[in-house]
Amino acid sequence: MRPVRILVAVVSLLALPLASVAHGQDSAAPAPQAGGADRAVTWGAGATLTSAFVWRGFVLENSPCVQPSVSVSFAHFTASSWVNLITHGASQVWSEHDLGISYARDVDDWEFSAGYTQYYFPTVHDAHMSHEFYVGAAYSGPLNPFVKVFHDVKVGDGTYVSTGVSQELPLGKSKWSVTPAVTLGYNNHQWVAGSGWSDLNLGVAVSLPPGNHVDVTGSINYSKSLRSEWFPSRAYVSLTVAVH
User: Which end of the chain has less neighbouring CB within 10 Å, N or C?
Assistant: First the structure.
């Protein structure tokens, strides 16, 4: 897997000079080039500030975190680099770095996707790296249902399935919008001993009127544990600023 990590890291670093802040998975293409929109290179960068780091029901950090990331897309492929920084006053602790590459293709009202993520945990000596693959399908229509299946092939050896719905709603005549979302997770031995329905996630995101290549989104979330022996329930809030 090392060559994949190096390739994704190089692509991500090439995008850094284009951005003054980190993160943004939503990206806008420049003027179409020869070969059509699928051949255009797009990028995104920004950062998320969250009151807690909650992932698939696991409360990985109970204190505020900053999560910068950067991505580059070309011809249905996207390479991304994502980092979690735990904030302790004026200092930060680097706890995770994810490198990913994915492929997505639209077929009528459906989007089908597949990808790979390398997880790196610099502070965990016995299990500092793991590898995960996924496939997914999402429908563009009422409630926008989706399903994704993730399989970790190393330390987190196991499968996680996520399915849910969401619906963007306008706020009156303004350009603001609110998006309620519900997702349900099923864990089969991924980072846990056992299998079963693991977490129910409820969230509401509010998106501000987009500026010139800048998006701002705030959200309130509640991760309900369905297996108390694995992890607790947790409410948290987040704010994301993205440029593209």
Answer: N
